[in-house]
Design brief:
The chain is of the alpha/beta class. About 40% of the residues lie in helices and about 15% in strands. The chain is built from 6 helices and 5 strands, in the order βββααααβαβα. The mean pLDDT is about 95.
């Protein structure tokens, strides 16, 4: 039993129960990106506010860095006009405050979303995929520590074997089935 989470422009996922994907009665289950983690938070494309993907996706990361950037003095600010995940990695490596604070906020939001999923499903494992997992920005140990502090110390959290290529590998396996 576990949870698969993919982080990209949005948040996708699957809930696995007894080695099978849980689709739900109407084949609409597993839309974990649209569970609320911040009541009255950022507006989501789905029409709701505070969805996990508006905070935990790569677009959520970019938004968090932009928000943190606005709080800084002009001398401390970074150029956010064409901000991308790769640019955030560079800014973080350069110890830019906006990137560091934005990445910390993003990781906190991911921890909140994953804890919510643990509270619902009590998984044995959480596997996280997506290109951003190759950036070094995702704090896996922080996730483990946070879940452990909320009594999910036995939940194994890890990155997917194929990280950003996981979707391609999965699709090819479905085609060859």
């Amino acid at each position: 039993n576990g949870i698969f989470v993919t982080i990209g422009r949005g948040i996708g996922g699957a809930i696995i129960v007894n080695n099978k994907i849980l689709y739900g009665n109407y084949q609409k289950g597993g839309k974990i990106g649209h569970m609320t983690i911040h009541y009255n938070g950022r507006k989501c494309n789905c029409g709701r506010k505070g969805c996990f993907e508006t905070y935990g996706s790569v677009l959520g990361l970019i938004k968090s860095v932009k928000e943190e950037n606005m709080k800084l003095t002009d001398e401390e600010k970074v150029n956010v006009e064409k901000l991308s995940g790769m640019q955030i990695v560079s800014y973080k490596n350069e110890n830019k405050k906006a990137a560091i604070k934005g990445v910390n906020k993003w990781n906190k939001d991911i921890r909140i979303g994953l804890l919510d999923l643990c509270n619902l499903f009590d998984p044995e494992m959480i596997v996280i995929a997506g290109g951003i997992t190759e950036s070094g920005l995702l704090d896996i140990q922080g996730i483990k520590d946070y879940l452990s502090s909320h009594y999910y110390d036995k939940c194994d959290v890890r990155l997917a074997k194929y990280k950003g290529k996981t979707g391609l590998v999965g699709a090819s396996l479905l085609v060859n089935k």
